[in-house]
Amino acid sequence: MIRLTNVEKTYDNGTHALKGISFEIADGEFVFLVGPSGSGKSTIIKLLTGEVLPSCGRVMINGFSMGRISDKQIPLMRRTLGVIFQDFRLINTKTVYDNLSLAMRAVGATTKEIQARIPYVLELVGLEGKEKRYPDELSGGEQQRVAIARALVNNPDTIVADEPTGNLDPNRSLEIMSLLERINALGTTVVVVTHEKSLVNRFEKRVIMIDEGNVVTDGAHSYEVREVQE
Ligand SMILES: Nc1ncnc2c1ncn2[C@@H]1O[C@H](COP(=O)(O)OP(=O)(O)O)[C@@H](O)[C@H]1O
Ligand SMILES: [Mg+2]
After folding, report:
1. Which range of residues forms the domain containing residue 129?
2. What is the CA radius of gyration of the chain?
3. pTM of the full predicted structure?
4. How far is the CA of 182 from the centre of ligand 2 (A)?
5. Is the CB of 14 under 6 A from ligand 1?
6. pLDDT in tens, 77-95
7. CA 148/CA 87 separation, integer angstroms
8. On the CB side of 121, how many CA atoms lie within 13 Å of its CA?
9. In a domain? residue 13
């Protein structure tokens, strides 16, 4: 479960990026986080991954309190969380297999576990048989599938994705969003940041809209409603 309670974030340069964010995401939900550029979406994602700490308020994720998490607990927390970025962030000098096996080694998986798991996740993302490819031998959509496989390889409770389709054309974007929907249907909580309205409106999911560091709406299909009001 994810719970933000009155979360504020002021960066060192004084930017007040988040001004009192509260929401709760239950296990198994699929949520879009939307809003204009600079509204604070990536800051929220970084609070969830532990990359930034809250200035005030409370961030709980999968039983861990991010404001007071100890160094020892961070690897345990990270095991519950898979992260996907706009720019894929694969290691280009390593094969698909090695990109995934590294993520499993990092949490102490055995060679046997790795050999059993990688073909399963590659099949899940539609990349069966691509183990030996290097990232630059794959299309953008395929590279993002590898990144999704890497996020899934340690069987996390939650996947967070920051603009995962930002570098992809509309058809590939739709495929990636459908894949995330399928992963959610298998039981993983999914939080996706996007500013692509057509995609959000195509999937009937909860939408949390952020503007200037505040939650402005939270519910189904709120993206269009606000536009009409403007
Ligand atoms: N590391 C940082 N240091 C200072 N200001 C930052 C930093 N990261 C983001 N910001 C600022 O915080 C605000 C929210 O940024 P961000 O969370 O990246 O928004 P979004 O992802 O919605 O575009 C912006 O004004 C941005 O310039
Ligand atoms: Mg962002």
Report:
1. 90-150
2. 18
3. 0.94
4. 24
5. no
6. 989 999 999 999 999 999 9
7. 12
8. 27
9. no
